[in-house]
Amino acid sequence: MARPSPLCHFVLPTNTSGNYKAECKHCGTFISGSGKTKSNFTTHLKRQHLKIYEESQKTAKNDDQVTLLPFIGGKMYSTTDPCETQANDVLISLVAEGRLSFSIVETSAFKRFTQVLDSQFVVPSRNHLSYTLLESTDLAITAKVKDQLHLAKGVALTLDLWSNRQMRGYLGITCHFSNDNWAMQYIMLCCKRFWGRHTAENIAHCHDEVTSAFNISDKVTTVATDNAFNVVKAFLLPGFHDTDDEEEILRDDDELHEDDGILFLNEV
């Protein structure tokens, strides 16, 4: 039985290949970890949030108990069977593109639906779907994106920072470049929670974190963003310069509106 990852209880940085710190979703404490070990996170959960930890273990155990009664007497796909792999890939796409809850695989209606389509396919547990299949798909897609960006001579970014009705901050960064055939390519690098104050320093830090994770820090030529003061200031920090004079950006210009203004900034 696959154990649930303790990382689901923490807010992780974009790059987790080396040493990093993650914020606990339950108490806000930052815990140190690395790509090789997760023991610190488990220890924190056991010491500070024992009931939550035990409940997640109990839920994972129940999720892994797949009922095979409807399939008794029938042959099931092996985990390495191409049909099993293809079905799991399509299931991941269904959940991601439809923004569905992982709990859909626990419903009897969904299981009956898949049995009608292919009685040899066993619906993965919620735990296996979220901690194994989704993570492996994410790694595969990220590797593919990095390969594409590695071939790009230069890239342009669009950056947007906003808050929802609950005043939770979110950051979105998209990447634009042309391939060898001069066809324009578009990739969303991140759309994630933005923690902390919306200061220029924090915005610049998140920008650097994302570009570093995708190995494009030295390839960014232009950043398009709105003209909110804190966002503009982030790219007036050392390492950036604007196409116009900085004083023109920072002064109160009637021709530049905060709601619909777009600025194009060039990195040094």
Automatic annotation (TrEMBL):
Instruction: Look up the domain of life of the source.
Output: Eukaryota
Cite the BED-type domain residue spans from the record: 17-49
Q: Which SUPFAM superfamilies match?
A: Hermes dimerisation domain, Ribonuclease H-like
Subcellular location per the Swiss-Prot or TrEMBL entry: Nucleus
Q: Which GO terms describe its molecular function?
A: DNA binding; zinc ion binding
Which keywords, in A-to-Z order, does the entry hold?
Metal-binding, Nucleus, Transcription, Transcription regulation, Zinc, Zinc-finger
Q: Does the keyword Transcription apply?
A: yes
A cellular component term, taken from the record's GO annotations: nucleus
Q: What is this protein called?
A: BED-type domain-containing protein
